[in-house]
């Protein structure tokens, strides 16, 4: 036994995923690396892609305890994102990866993010496209098959990453991109899987604060702000019970007969979109099974909503919300499953912005008929659980749009997100 233990310890240590950052920032923003194809700039934190689809990409890595792996990365990323656009408006897209991924040059999510930025640049040739990739240690064990036992460890790490220095970075980035005088620039945040958990852990209190501020706003325009222009959580690997305080506030302030009420009639686009694929077995099957063992000794009741007393059976079981993911809890859904018009996925050759006021017209008509978005081909159907103009959306997606847990970069979805970003 004394001989076996050191051998097992050595095997475990050798199987650990890298701890050090993958990217190095050299001399700040001025020193970027020209990226032409996968394999280029393997360690650079600032990349520039030229013809035929120009864009820039910055990497910001957060360590296990939630602190910057290299603060110079963050400073360089903010300088890049806030620079005056070379042409048109600036589109700044922030992506936070999930389980099993990292900021390494061979990571599949890194490649997919490059592809998405190229698509956006092709669709918006008269504008300036910039990406920010948030990297964290998505695996603690690098051996395939064995690494699936890291679920609980990586879930806890996603909490730490979200509650740490990332919040500082995101607020500074928003201030820089959306500062007065540069309001035409667009900022969108996309979190996937445990990356959606990172995003939600970072911004949940900000969303609640801005929602409450919206209740008291008298603005003639949109009153309910989210983060940047809006955020998208795709196949979020976070328990639904974490979202219940926000959802409960939404239901309360849209149904209360007296006092402060949420007036969504001024909203022109969503502030938060939560999407879960019908083909995602990881959040629909694996996540609940893993959460069962984490929650088996916890006490649960039935959450009261719309003035009902806790435990009175209004469908909001705390135990169900504690084992199901945020995106898969049906009572949170504001829309029916998103579908693609026609016979499934067709890569859009173009992705034109919606006409001025077109999204508001969609939302005005959606209560009587589903609305189809041009180019992306996505069909939106409202469920009527909240007002049609609510800026907080949650829905399933058909497998044509996102086939599985990690199939997140299809052109139709990228185009639809861009159409929402552009809406006014």
Give structural notes.
The protein is α/β, with parallel strands linked by helices. The protein has 11 helices and 12 strands. It has helices at 4-15, 71-82, 108-123, 151-163, 165-177, 194-215, 244-255, 281-295, 318-323, 358-365, 411-422; strands at 33-34, 46-49, 55-61, 90-96, 128-135, 186-192, 230-234, 272-277, 339-340, 371-372, 378-380, 392-397. Strands 1-2-3-5-4-6-7-8-12 form a 9-stranded mixed β-sheet, sandwiched between helices. Strand 7 (230-234), helix 7 and strand 8 form a beta-alpha-beta unit. Helix 2 runs parallel beside helix 5 and helix 4 (151-163) runs parallel beside helix 6 (194-215). The longest helix is centred in the middle third of the chain and has 22 residues, at 194-215. The relative contact order is 0.11.
* Tally of helical segments: 11
Task: Work out the number of β strands.
Answer: 12
Helix content: 25-40%
| Low-pLDDT runs | 1-14, 307-313
- Could you say which structural class the secondary elements and strand pairing correspond to? alpha/beta
Strand content: 5-15%
Order of helices and strands: HEEEHEHEHHEHEHEHHEHEEEH
Rg over CA atoms, rounded to whole Å, is 22 Å
N-C termini distance: 68 Å
In which order are the strands of the major sheet placed? 1-2-3-5-4-6-7-8-12
Largest sheet: 9 strands, mixed
Mean pLDDT over the residues: 87
Global geometry: globular
